[in-house]
Specification:
By secondary structure, the protein is mostly helical. Helices cover 58% and strands 3% of the residues. The longest helix is centred in the C-terminal third of the chain and has 19 residues, at 235-253. This is Cyclin-like domain-containing protein. Keywords: Cyclin. InterPro entries: Cyclin, Cyclin-like_dom, Cyclin-like_sf, Cyclin_N.
Length: 295
């Protein structure tokens, strides 16, 4: 059935997909560690889901501030969740852990000329720890991640699935499956710890399948089924996670969720960074704006 997706151009993408599917379980956070975080009481002494989610929103704000890619953000979240699911980090150390994971992801994915100085990164984030503190934390994070900084992420799957799906869409219909919109949906899901418990391939497929259903792209239904079979995702799991993604995005669009125009972070930027970015300060949103279809 997967043969319908295979063209000369698609074969290389399928080879990449197979490699990611083979590797993804190696880079999953520990399920037992994530459950401990989810069930922890918010007493200021233990890591909780609320604290983790708030930290991820701050990392998203930094990603937007510097104009870094969704790949960088997705990788930073992977590092953070893998670390937190292994270590009993205290809330007071979360900022240092999160920023260290973010900086490792930036250095792993972004062009060298775009990587900020650690001093600027700390200052912009308004933390009080030092560069030495962050460098020590980076080493601890790397040791706990077994120095695996090229992790398999949901973003990589989403990108590959999207490219493969485009092979089955006429040119005039491709604008209806906007990748920027899919990226924004993935970012919103990353801000909920529950989505760190699912395999990246399943999360990416859930987001894509839900979008295709919403946009009534009926000609892609069989292509989604092919990807589902190829990725060995059973229908029950896909339905379960699609429902959770739908609920997450619905809450994001409702008054239950703080909107970017309600809660904004004000970053105090050093003179050097301000000159580089051509602004004296920025106001940026916690959560991404999900663009309208066809934008």
């Amino acid at each position: 059935m997967i043969e319908m997706l295979v063209t000369t151009e698609a074969q290389e993408l399928l080879d990449q997909l197979n490699a990611l599917l083979e590797q993804e379980l190696r880079y999953q956070p520990k399920a037992s560690g994530l459950r401990l975080i989810e069930t922890a009481h918010d007493n200021g002494l233990r890591m909780t889901a609320r604290l983790r989610d708030f930290e991820v929103k701050d990392l998203l704000s930094l990603t937007q501030f510097f104009g870094f890619s969704t790949e960088t953000f997705s990788l930073a979240v992977n590092f953070l969740d893998r670390f937190l699911s292994k270590m009993k980090a205290q809330p007071k150390h979360l900022g240092c852990v999160g920023l260290s994971c973010f900086y490792l992801a930036v250095k792993a994915t972004e062009e060298e000329r775009n990587i900020p100085l650690a001093t600027d990164l700390i200052r912009i984030s308004q933390y009080r720890f030092t560069v030495s503190d962050m460098m020590r934390m980076e080493k601890i994070v790397l040791e706990k991640l077994y120095w695996r900084v090229k992790a398999t992420t949901a973003f990589q799957f989403l990108q590959l699935y999207h490219l493969l799906i485009h092979e089955n869409l006429p040119c005039e219909r491709r604008k209806h499956l906007n990748f920027e919109r899919l990226e924004a949906q993935l970012k919103a899901c990353h801000c909920r710890i529950m989505f760190s418990k699912v395999k990246p391939s399943v999360l990416a497929l859930s987001i894509l399948a839900l979008e295709i259903e919403e946009k009534k792209l009926l000609e892609l239904k069989e292509a989604i089924e092919c990807l589902q079979i190829h990725s060995k995702t059973n229908s029950r799991d896909l339905t379960f996670w699609k429902e959770l993604v739908l609920k997450c995005l619905a809450e994001y669009s409702s008054n239950k969720c703080s909107k970017p125009n309600v809660q904004k972070l004000k970053w105090i930027v050093s003179g050097r960074t301000a000159r580089q970015l051509k602004h004296s300060y920025y106001r940026i949103s916690h959560l991404p704006t999900i663009p309208e279809t066809g934008s």
